[in-house]
Design a protein that fits this description.
Blueprint (H helix, E strand, L loop, with lengths): L1 E2 L5 E5 L9 H13 L4 E7 L10 E6 L6 H12 L6 E4 L2 H14 L3 E5 L2 H4 L6 H12 L2 E4 L2 H10 L6 E3 L19 H4 L6 E6 L8 H14 L5 E6 L5 H14 L2 E4 L5 H10 L2 E4 L13 H7 L5 E4 L14 E4 L4 H17 L2 H10 L3 H9 E2 L1
Parallel strand pairs: 2-3, 2-5, 3-4, 5-6, 6-7, 7-8, 9-10, 9-12, 10-11, 12-13, 13-14
Antiparallel strand pairs: 1-15
Helix pairs in contact: 1-14, 2-3, 3-5, 8-9, 8-12, 11-13
């Protein structure tokens, strides 16, 4: 292996970064952490970014989901003071605009990451698509999180730079067991013996919570001897959508816990107790599920998933081995999937299959494939 640049300097620019939750945040942090083993890494991140305990440098000067003139100038000033041959990695399309400006104004080279929805929303002409065409067209390299996302990119940006599909990873800490009880009170109050299903991720319509509520309510009705609990964990992106879910919960009388973002320790305990993670993803205009990182994190704790055949999700879940893939998000399909999963669990080996599958995705390998060339 050899480095893809003659310098060891790497600048990762991200509009999302811990403690903010989400795929972009996790991607930026974990790549910086793993790349610090063979590169000198600087991260340009939002103002509340967590520091890295000396492993790499974090420069907090951006705003979440916004690129202002001030943050652009500050970012370019940081880049301008660094080695001219440093590699700039834009972790998302907003960061890609900074990379583009660094290319035009400072003569720097950059690469850019695509996650799914950031390229899917450009299926027709617009002024914003012109900017995206420039970002992707002038990049030295474009990376996608799945083959599915790569296909969307190549369809919407046929003249963009070459795209390489490099899947996301799972940190080693996700495989360890967290002892003790839940720290989140909504989780700690779940009674022993309850059958738990969970959906972890941002609360937005494309995640399909509404159909999951309807299906689990029917599952509870068909199995009155069970106590079914549906845990919805994650940041609320659409408050009106959460209100819609709450109305359905009240109508069906299902036990649903809206926990909001929870700690990694609690997530690992939740996955170990849950029957399955549900991702009833649905296709919406400009919104796709490009990969499904939470499915791998659940699998690392031996938790299988029930998912719809949407976006890049089937590239993560092995149907019949680490979960069940359904063709459509319907009550009947989900009930059949739960029944199929019960049979798989009874036969044994599902948890081991999940852990083995998750072991096949590491942030270390993602970093090496991203920054090193054969």
């Amino acid at each position: 292996m050899k480095e893809s640049s003659s310098t060891s300097d790497l600048i990762i620019v991200a509009s999302e970064y811990p403690p903010f939750p989400g795929g972009i945040s996790s991607y930026a942090y974990n790549l910086a952490l793993e790349a610090s083993a063979f590169r000198r890494v600087t991260v340009i991140a939002p103002g509340d970014a967590e520091q890295a305990d000396g492993k790499f440098t974090v420069k907090p000067c951006l705003e979440h989901h916004r690129l202002t003139l001030l943050s652009l100038v500050r970012s370019l000033a940081i880049i301008g003071r660094m080695n001219r041959r440093a590699l700039i990695h834009a972790a998302d399309i907003r960061a890609g605009l900074i990379g583009l400006c660094a290319r035009v104004l400072l003569g720097r080279r950059y690469m850019v990451m695509t996650h799914g929805s950031d390229v899917a929303k450009f299926d027709r002409f617009s002024l914003s698509k012109l900017a995206a065409m420039a970002v992707y067209g002038m990049a030295s390299r474009v990376v996608s999180n799945s083959d599915y996302t790569k296909g969307i990119y190549e369809k919407n940006f046929p003249h963009g730079s070459r795209c390489v599909s490099i899947p996301l990873g799972v940190g080693e800490d996700w495989f360890s067991v967290s002892g003790g009880g839940f720290s989140n009170p909504l989780l700690s109050s779940i009674r022993e013996g309850a059958e738990i299903f969970c959906t972890v991720g941002r609360l937005e319509p494309r995640k399909g919570h509404l159909i999951a509520v309807e299906a689990l309510a029917e599952y509870q009705r068909l199995n009155p001897q069970k106590k079914v609990v549906y845990v919805i964990g994650g940041l609320t992106i659409d408050a009106e959508y959460q209100a819609d879910i709450q109305r359905e919960v009240e109508r069906h009388g299902l036990d649903v816990r809206f926990t909001g973002p929870v700690s990694v320790s609690d997530l690992k305990k939740l996955y170990r107790r849950a029957t399955a993670q549900l991702l009833c993803a649905i296709s919406l205009p400009g919104k796709i599920e490009g990969f499904g990182l939470v499915l791998l994190e659940a699998a690392a704790q031996g938790c299988p998933s029930i998912v719809t055949n949407v976006g890049g999700v089937p590239e993560v879940v092995l149907d019949g081995e680490t979960g069940v893939i359904v063709k459509e998000a319907s009550v009947a399909s989900l009930l059949n999937a739960i029944s199929q999963l019960d049979e798989m669990i009874a036969a044994g080996g599902v948890g081991e299959n999940c852990i083995r599958r998750a072991r096949g995705f590491s942030w270390s390998e993602t970093a090496k494939r991203t920054y090193l060339e054969a």
